Amino acid sequence: xxxxxxxxxxxxxxxxxxxxxxxxxxxNVVCIDNLVSGNMNNLxxxxxxxSFTFVQGDIxxxxxxxxxxxxxRPNQINHHAAQKSVAYSVENPSYDLDVNLVGLMxxxxxxxxxxxxxFIYVSSGGALSKKIEGDEKSAETDTPQLISPxxxxxxxxEKYIEMYAAQYGYDFTVVRYxxxxxxxxxxxxxxxVIPIFLNNILADKPSVLMTYPDMPNGCTRDYVxxxxxxxxxxxxxEKPTNTVVNVGxxxxxxxxxxxxxxxxxxxxxxxxxxxxxxxxxxxxxxxDAGRAENLLGWKSEVALHEGLTRLRADLEVAK
Length: 319
Ligand SMILES: NC(=O)c1ccc[n+]([C@@H]2O[C@H](COP(=O)([O-])OP(=O)(O)OC[C@H]3O[C@@H](n4cnc5c(N)ncnc54)[C@H](O)[C@@H]3O)[C@@H](O)[C@H]2O)c1
Hints:
CATH topology of the largest domain: Rossmann fold
CATH architecture of the largest domain: 3-Layer(aba) Sandwich
CATH superfamily of the largest domain: NAD(P)-binding Rossmann-like Domain
Number of strands: 13
Bound molecules: nicotinamide-adenine-dinucleotide
Number of domains: 2
Strand order of the largest sheet: 3-2-1-4-5-6-11
Helix content: 25-40%
């Protein structure tokens, strides 16, 4: 049977890697993206693939979305389009609400009219992290801190996906990502600490570490290489879990240590300065991904040093 997947935000960093994977797996891929942060260059290798359709448009455009569903009748949706920045959501919560929830609702209205089989919804394990004490990790069952509009819209989106699944009969997986990095990531938003540092380092410009006074090495995060993220999406399309799964390595790394690792892998030596943290930033975040392993057999395979080494190789090829 033909498999057609709608990838929203497919011209973005993660979405473009997913479009490539789904085509390689034999899906028809329909990608919608308004290119607000995505880029057609990310789709250069697949834009002429006979099973690939690109639609430039906004997920909040109800008429366009309904037409797209009517024409392509996707069996699956992988929803990556979003306002993705914690800091920007604090500055402009209305925009965050509009893209992340009104946009989702526009898609769900289409699902009511044109039923699907599987919905993959992307959430944020970092922003939804519980308050971490000692050497614990954040699990899916923990209560999230919800200290930014972005955390609130992603969490509410999860609940809509679950509620609509019960009402309209699709299977789903919510993938709660840690901090993802890899080729095509651009330095912006919440998710850009590695490309922001890297851009500065390659230009021999000092970077700024935004942190709390009692955390001299910076806030902590869990970093996952994009190939691992592609793999869990592949698995979630094959075997729905009907629950939330964390996508993390379980390794808690301070931002200063990330900076030092980038310097080492790229063989550079550039200064870094301290500043106060941004509103909405969680202090510590590290994910327990045991549920992803139990339900999908997924485990992060690419350690940080290996991921940064692959990123360096990719940038050298692109030169
Ligand atoms: N990168 C990370 O570390 C990380 C961590 C947690 C969650 N996420 C989530 O993963 C998803 C993808 O993030 P990314 O890092 O690839 O970012 P990205 O900015 O590269 O991708 C988002 C894509 O969505 C598109 N888009 C935004 N608003 C749109 C709209 N209204 N209509 C149509 N398209 C729209 C953008 O143009 C872009 O191509 C987002 O949902 C983000 O919240 C990312």
